[in-house]
């Protein structure tokens, strides 16, 4: 093999073959090469048989005449190199060996390999071309899918295929850089040249199925390429010689003639409207034109047969238009009156709902409270319908415990979440009014802000600030494929913030609030993953001098306080129990109702308390927690959760103690020096040992950094609360 890395001018290049065994003659089974590979960056090599100067002199001495194959011919070289042998037209192979020139029988009309890939990105590669061996009719038709993303098809030499046209038998390609027009040569060992190029920057290649005439190809049915019915054979010629034959669908058919039933009928009547100046009837491979029926004529504009014009056509049109306009006028007038009547009825109904839902009283409360007017707004139904695209189902964020939540965009582009009850029941209505009553008084950074409400519907609508990152439950129990995970630092901070919000609710100066549905799904996370306690539809207002209320049991299974469930007495310790379940969720990353190893449903709190007794804490908490914190800190949080989950309410800590305990752990973890020494004596004994709740002082004070309840008029509030809350 020769390699030439630079341009060298050589007048002659001689290759000398030396026989290794000088005895006897070279037989047809000789190991002499049948081709010579010469690798060069820029060289043209011509070679010939130079033991005789011409074909005529070589034929005179048949003993050493090189063109021994039948169907081969001798050609004199244009320069003084002797002569060459070539297979006759229509034959391929080696003319220098006996029977070396054969007819082209390489084409396979049936795909040799099943389930071959036929797509390169968004490009379909039809038979006889293919993308893998066995998927093409012959090696010359095998393409390479070099880039699925950009849908790049190439021949072996790197030429990019841009189009394959069966109708014209053409493949359009882009030449690789450095090749001139006409330089395309596609060679495969044992196959003829079947591409004839023409064109410019993007050249078009006429291609043939085989180097045979149509008459020769049709004699061998097992190798004949035109397998589709309604296909025909055509010859392919280049500017120099005959290339071979190709297939084409007959007139009136289109498709791929190289596959069975590939040529399909063309419906000329549909494809070419107006092809007939009358009625068009499609036939297989053709179509028929028939005259228009009696008393009709062909309309060039409408491209169909229409009735002939009559003398009274104008009169008919005038009468028809007059009657039509009269009817249309009556219909439109009736629709306008009906619409106005419905609108008036709807407005009256909205006014009735507004009064029923204590709208007038709420307006007085808001107008008389300077702080409340800055945060609470009464919306009209029309405003909220516009904000939610008429409560489009695609705007649904989820279903809460007391209604469907929609995403809305107000006219000032403020993003809000709008809660709308789906069940029309009086207790549901009371729950909504109850939530308005509670949230309109609350101002705390870790409690979801009530932006406003709408009282013009049978079930009031509540408008909150939109919280973009969903709920703590959604993140803790997301699918395993989710890439986002809350760190232990974030979990500890979120728990501290939620505990602070509940402590604020329990210890408000004028009225205490028992949430009654504390769970991770009701702890929302804003853009900065700050906790926002939400969903106050089940909450209860409690006078400051009372410690509990008797209510119908309400809450979520898995979080529900057992003592509250059995006695119906709701107090602040019921929220503490539910918060304890949330702490266990943060530690174990399990849902509040889980399936045991034997397939039974079980409360997470029961599972935790039992496992806490029989196994060390490190064996039951989530692996991520073990990686991010110390066993001492895990034990501290687990002990706090265990105390919150005490079956007896009087053995549980208060939310103030829970918040202080979590705040102490958070500050200690962050190496903060802001811990107040006065609170340390109250926190550390609770963390290290179980709190003696019998000595607890019920009169607690807010920490200095907590927000206070906004000011309001006691008289109006008392009247509104008494009419809005649920009688239980």
UniProtKB/TrEMBL annotation:
Chain sites annotated for binding ATP: 420
Keywords: ATP-binding, Disulfide bond, Glycoprotein, Kinase, Membrane, Nucleotide-binding, Serine/threonine-protein kinase, Signal, Transferase, Transmembrane, Transmembrane helix
Presence of keyword Signal: yes
GO MF, one annotated term: calcium ion binding
Keyword Repeat: no
Membrane topology: Single-pass type I membrane protein
Entries under SUPFAM superfamilies matching the protein: EGF/Laminin, Protein kinase-like (PK-like)
A GO cellular component entry from the record: plasma membrane
Primary location class: membrane
Transmembrane parts of this sequence: 313-338
Residues annotated as domain Protein kinase: 391-665
Location in the cell: Membrane
Gene3D superfamilies: Laminin, Phosphorylase Kinase, domain 1, Transferase(Phosphotransferase) domain 1
Listed name of the protein: Protein kinase domain-containing protein
